[in-house]
Specification:
The two termini are 17 Å apart. It is built from four helices and no strands. It has 99 residues and is an all-alpha fold.
Length: 99
């Protein structure tokens, strides 16, 4: 069911973005609490994560067949944090049952 896969994988993209943003959320809180600026590279990284997520979801939602869907899901390239620590593991098979 392509519609179900689209819904599941849009949620997966949002979860991945959340996972990538979470380690730097403390910088946002610190800025709010004490006014310490967010380093520019971290601000740019966070913007790229959000943009990647929205682009991926748009690409997934635009698919009309399973081959295009697989391409949309497997072609997402998430940014690497300024600490050069990739957080996201390899993308699982997009049509395999999820646990």
């Amino acid at each position: 069911d392509l519609a179900g896969l689209k819904t599941t994988w849009a949620a997966q993209m949002r979860q991945t973005a959340y996972t990538l943003l979470l380690p730097s959320d403390w910088m946002i809180v610190r800025k709010q609490e004490v006014g310490t600026a967010i380093p520019a590279e971290w601000s740019s990284y966070r913007d790229m994560v959000r943009a990647t997520c929205e682009l991926a979801i748009g690409d997934i939602e635009a698919t009309t067949d399973i081959d295009a869907f697989i391409t949309a899901v497997t072609s997402v390239v998430w940014p690497v944090s300024p600490d050069n620590q990739p957080v996201v593991e390899a993308v699982p098979d997009p049509v395999a049952p999820q646990e």
